[in-house]
């Protein structure tokens, strides 16, 4: 069509003027307006966290269609208005869309917007917020994230810095950024306990979420499928790897930041076993073959325990192989197989290949199907040491579930050598914990010596101005870190005999409890007596989580503790007292 149009124009007299000095500038003005709108839309989609590629395409398509009509339609009075209308249509549709995503004071081309322009001037008089590097962030591209020059990105950078600094100051292992209507919820998981901080306006929450996705190398356009990346955050002399995970929800996209902590270096001796348990565990680890079932409810440090056992073996002298669904932790000198589902491949099939290679130690941090359970049990009974991570409430719940999956009590009895179950309890802050004399009646209930002195978090204290004095070591929580509380069922010949002959797991449980040494409460109370944790913390963790009564003494109820401690406010740039 364009060639035909040019051919027609060429038939006119050579001395005619085909470029109007009025029409061309008019088209150029609209063209410049269109390109300016397109640039603004490109930046604004990032600021309001909407679909950048989609809206860039819409605005560009509207402009291109209008420009083609203006150039090809001979009648200027028809082509030019179409060009103008096309540019305005794309711009107005986007403005209506973006105004529906932001707060009223952030809308554009509205009465409120024009009123702000009149009061502040076209350039605005709003004072820019100070932007500084509070933590050093290294992105997925291994480049340090510097303070941007662009105004929109500077604000996103500032929000990211404030969030990360606050999360690390509070020692949050997990930070969840979740949309909630016109606001964004920020929830920390500190030593296993959720703590909700002051939220953000929805636009700011979306902005920091988008910026963190970009830094972690995630696809900004993908808002529904789960994505995963990593960044490095340095605060002072300490560096931390942070796993960034995004996923879609019905309310919008959410983001989780998970700090990879000491689980990256723990060994068996660091997990929290008592001295007696540690001797038993080391004896089991020295066996050439057998199945060690490591169990816990979700969220109680099972992954850390599994990899702690792996690190406690000599990877230079033994052939250790891990088959996992997700690569949680890298272990030096250990062969780690990541299962990638394919058309005909299965997890049990991949496990069979590894078993045929005759490893000394086989590790399965997670099992999801019956075939894998049966194959792991058979391998442990015949040729290798096998460690398996498994979700269960206690050792006998684990034995019941595992036996049901294997379907052969004899094979279970032959393969098993130990079952552990665990909980995580918070460790009292060594800087501010209080020593106190419990009530004699409570000591009798707990079967503790009458002269026992225990520890607990301190009462809240205030300075002369009424400001809360916050411990710099624990940020006012009274606890720093967590440790494991374990029960261990050693499967010796007597237990194997009972497992084979028992009509139910209850008979095995009755036999084991009569022998003693099984249960969580006794090892938990030993941590209270040593001053490592508090009675209140033990009751909080063990109560209502499927933990069985111990074969020894344990807490009978929740003793009275100190009054609730106020939550310290966010540092917001200042160092708390």
What features would you describe in this structure?
The protein has 577 residues and is an alpha/beta fold. The protein has three domains: 2-11 and 20-120; 136-260, 2-Layer Sandwich (Beta-Lactamase); 264-542, P-loop containing nucleotide triphosphate hydrolases (Rossmann fold, 3-Layer(aba) Sandwich). The protein is built from 18 helices and 16 strands. It has a seven-stranded antiparallel β-sheet with strand order 1-5-6-7-2-3-4, with helices on one face. Strands 10-9-11-12-8-13-16 form a seven-stranded mixed β-sheet, sandwiched between helices. Strand 11, helix 11 and strand 12 (385-391) form a beta-alpha-beta unit. Helix 2 runs parallel beside helix 4 (76-99), helix 12 packs antiparallel against helix 16 and helix 13 runs antiparallel to helix 15. The longest helix is centred in the first third of the chain and has 25 residues, at 23-47. The chain starts with a helix and ends in a 35-residue tail after the last helix. The model is unreliable at 12-17, 549-564 and 572-577 (pLDDT under 50).
């Amino acid at each position: 069509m364009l060639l035909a149009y040019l051919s027609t124009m060429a038939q006119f007299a050579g001395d005619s003027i085909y470029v109007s000095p009025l029409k061309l500038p008019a088209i150029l003005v609209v063209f410049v307006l269109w390109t300016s709108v397109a640039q603004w839309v490109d930046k604004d989609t990032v600021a309001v966290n909407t679909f950048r590629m989609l809206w860039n395409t819409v605005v560009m398509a509207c402009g291109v269609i209008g420009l083609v009509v203006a150039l090809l339609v001979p009648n200027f009075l028809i082509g030019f208005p179409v060009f103008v209308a096309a540019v305005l249509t794309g711009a107005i549709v986007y403005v209506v869309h973006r105004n529906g995503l932001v707060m009223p004071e952030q809308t554009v081309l509205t009465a409120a917007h024009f009123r702000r322009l009149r009061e502040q001037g076209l350039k605005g008089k709003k004072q820019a917020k100070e932007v500084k590097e509070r933590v050093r962030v290294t992105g997925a591209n291994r480049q340090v994230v510097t303070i941007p020059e662009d105004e929109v990105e500077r604000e996103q950078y500032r929000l990211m810095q404030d969030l990360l600094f606050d999360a690390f100051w509070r020692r949050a292992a997990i930070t969840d950024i979740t949309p909630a209507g016109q606001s964004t919820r920020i929830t920390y998981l500190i030593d296993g306990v959720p703590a909700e901080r002051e939220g953000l306006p929805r636009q700011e929450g979306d902005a920091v979420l988008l910026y963190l996705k970009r830094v972690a190398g995630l696809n900004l356009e993908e808002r529904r499928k789960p994505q995963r990346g990593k960044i490095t955050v340095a605060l002072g002399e300490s560096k931390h790897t942070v796993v960034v995970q995004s996923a879609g929800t019905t309310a919008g996209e959410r983001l989780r930041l998970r700090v990879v902590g000491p689980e990256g270096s723990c060994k068996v001796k660091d997990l929290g076993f008592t001295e007696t348990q540690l001797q038993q565990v080391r004896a089991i680890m020295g066996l050439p073959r057998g199945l060690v079932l490591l169990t816990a409810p979700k969220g109680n440090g099972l992954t850390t325990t599994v990899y702690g056992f792996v690190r406690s073996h000599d990877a230079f002298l033994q052939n250790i192989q891990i088959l996992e669904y997700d690569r949680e932790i890298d272990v030096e000198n250990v062969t780690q197989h990541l299962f990638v589902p394919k058309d005909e491949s299965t997890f049990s099939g991949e496990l069979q290949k590894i078993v045929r290679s005759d490893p000394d130690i086989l590790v399965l941090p997670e099992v999801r199907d019956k075939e894998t359970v049966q194959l792991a049990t058979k391998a442990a009974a015949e040729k290798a040491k096998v460690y398996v991570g498994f979700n269960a409430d206690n050792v006998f719940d684990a034995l019941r579930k595992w036996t049901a999956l294997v379907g052969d009590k004899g094979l279970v009895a032959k393969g098993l050598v130990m079952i552990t179950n665990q909980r995580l309890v918070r460790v009292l802050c060594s800087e501010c914990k209080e020593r106190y004399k419990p009530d004699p009646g409570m000591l009798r209930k707990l079967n503790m010596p009458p002269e026992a002195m225990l520890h607990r978090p301190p009462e809240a204290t205030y300075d002369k101005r009424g400001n809360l004095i916050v411990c710099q070591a624990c940020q006012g929580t009274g606890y720093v870190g967590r440790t494991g509380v374990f029960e261990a069922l050693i499967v010796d010949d007597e237990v194997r005999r009972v497992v084979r002959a028992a009509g139910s797991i209850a008979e095995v449980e009755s036999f084991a409890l009569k022998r003693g040494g099984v249960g969580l409460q006794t090892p938990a109370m030993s941590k209270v007596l040593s001053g490592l944790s508090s009675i209140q913390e033990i009751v909080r963790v063990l109560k209502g989580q499927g933990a069985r009564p111990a074969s020894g003494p344990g807490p009978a109820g929740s003793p009275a503790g100190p009054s609730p401690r106020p939550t310290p406010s966010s540092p917001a740039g200042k160092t708390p007292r």
